[in-house]
Amino acid sequence: MEYQFVKEFPHPMMEKGKRPVISIYINTHISKPDRHENPIRFKNLVREAHEALKENEVRSFKALFSLFKDMEDDALFWEGATEGMAILADEEECIVYKLPLNVTNRAIVSDSFYINPLLKSYQQKGRYHVLGLNRDRFFLYDADRNGIQKILLDDKDSTLEGVLGTQLTETVLSHSSLGGAQSTYHGYGGAKDEKKIDEEKFFRHVDNFVQENYSMQSKIPLILVGLEEHQGEFRKISKNPYLLKEGIKTDIDALDKKMLYAMVQDVLTDLFNQQLKERMKIFNQAHSKDMGSDDVVQIARAITEKRVAVLYLEENIVHPGSYDLSHGTITEGKSQASYSGDIYDEMAEAVLSQGGELLILAKSEMPTKSDIAAVYRY
User: Fold this and answer.
1) Average pLDDT of the chain to the nearest whole number
2) Which CATH architecture describes the domain 290-376?
3) DSSP letter at 215?
4) Statement: residue 187 has pLDDT above 50
5) CA gap 23, 109 in Å, rounded
6) Which domain of life is it from (predicted)?
7) Nearest residue to 309 (alpha-carbon basis) of 360, 367, 354
């Protein structure tokens, strides 16, 4: 049995229906000497999972616990640790997520995977494109929660000379006679006008090329990076519905990949915070009109009726027990360490399967004092 690092979420393993399953979350240290504690924390969490299994189930997980021991002792496994790690496993398979956020150390054995921290991670760090633009060349990057990579483009598609070629604008001159042998030429253009015309042609090409070959296929946000004057001209002509209003106003050539990624993350964080404020307004308005609630019993019934449009959950909160989707009822478990699922996790999965939206928020970001809230469709 082997483990694999994965980025895909949700992962096909989550749909297998194997029971029970094990979910382990570790708040990993990145720098020395604290990072040497990571294997120790993992060992303690594995022990908790082992104790939570029923006696007859331990035998079927023998290969998995042997794998966990190998992972604990494998220095390469702990290389490149991020702020958090999620390890999900059944008796046949084990997958590992490196998370860009802190998590609560936790081991849960239940009939379904505990995914609240994963949902929190992926809602903020989705996939997106970055367009780096100057007047005679553009660059395109594919980025997600794990990093940023340049997309290889042919010069004929990505450079002014490659796109326009022999169509580069020439200065237009007219001739008039002053009489006798004297003649004069009047220019209807000049170097600045030529550059302006060529720049507009090139920017139109960039917009069409990126939209048709990337944005319309992936349907993910596009962040523009470039000098303010280039951004202004490009935005005047762009018809790309995925281009974000907020860009990065700096010379793309002055940024290395690390600097670019950090600046892009700042843009996305600001965007998420703006969207969050709007979500708060939406909930408050809905709640005042009985189109929203922060009562878990009411929300449970509304999910069964497929009425929940948006579900708000406080991060790192576990409510042991189960949620019966067919009846809209909740059964509470005895403790977090017991063989029990998570009520809110199961409610979240139901909302997502119905096409609803899910927000995992910090306590200070929740729209009410409750750790759960919902906006209804009707």
Assistant:
1) 87
2) 2-Layer Sandwich (3.30)
3) I
4) no
5) 7
6) Bacteria
7) 354
Fold classification of 3-114 (topology level): 3.30.960
Pairing outcome for strands 308-314 and 357-361: parallel
User: Measured between alpha carbons, how far is 28 from 32 in angstroms, rounded to an integer?
Assistant: 12
**How many Å separate Cα 48 from the centre of its chain?**
31
Q: What phi and psi values does residue 296 have, to the nearest 5 degrees?
A: -65, -35
pLDDT value of residue 125 = 55
- Show the tokens assigned to 263: 């600046």
Q: Determine the topology of domain 128-271 in CATH.
A: Nucleotidyltransferase; domain 5 (3.30.420)
Task: Report yes or no on whether pTM surpasses 0.85.
Answer: no
Residue-range domain boundaries for the chain: 3-114, 128-271, 290-376
Q: What are phi and psi of 269, to 5 degrees?
A: -65, -45
E strands in the chain: 3-5, 21-26, 84-89, 94-99, 106-110, 128-134, 137-144, 147-150, 173-179, 182-187, 222-226, 248-249, 292-293, 308-314, 321-324, 329-332, 357-361, 372-376
Is pLDDT at 33 greater than 90 in this prediction? no
State the Cα–Cα distance between residues 132 and 260, nearest whole angstrom: 10
The pair of three-digit structure tokens given for residue 231, joined into one six-digit string = 């951004």
Spell 316-351 as b/e; 16+ CB within 10 A means b. bebbbbbbebeebebeebeeebebbbbbbbbbbbbb
Return the structure tokens found at 133.
């633009």
What angle, rounded to 10 degrees, do the helices at 116-124 and 257-288 form? 110
What confidence score (pLDDT) does residue 177 get? 44
pLDDT at 228 over 60: yes
